[in-house]
Amino acid sequence: MATKEELAEFFEQDFPQANFIIERVGDRSATIRKKITHEHLRPGGTVSGPVLMEMADAALYVAILSEIGLVALAVTTNLNINFMRKPASDKDVIAECKLMKLGKLLAIGEVSLFSDGDPNPVAHAVGTYAIPPVKKFG
């Protein structure tokens, strides 16, 4: 298992491009936040789809690593996302992940994405991660 602080340090060192804040981990779940700036918007003043997909994927990764420890080589094998409404261009994006299955080789989770302060989700994603097998020596 990894704590919120250990995860934040891991992302800062190994994934410096990860520009989000880990708000909460535990109980097979995670919540992360991303500050939305002009660079995250597409024409029409909405948060771009790739930003929302990034947040869904990152929330899954954080939730999984909080349970299995800092396994850098766990990778996304599938991510399905439904965009439900236009996110606010002046609010942070919040991603809340709940793991549905956590096995030895696969993890499956669902993520709801929100504009900060709005209880209605802007997107919903389901993703699968492959977890590398533990190598046994001897």
Automatic annotation (TrEMBL):
Pfam families: 4HBT. Keywords: Hydrolase, Membrane, Transmembrane, Transmembrane helix. It comes from Microbulbifer elongatus. Gene3D superfamilies: Hotdog Thioesterase. The chain crosses the membrane at residues 58-81. This is PaaI family thioesterase. Residues 44-118 form the Thioesterase domain. InterPro entries: HotDog_dom_sf (IPR029069), PAAI_dom (IPR003736), Thioestr_dom (IPR006683).
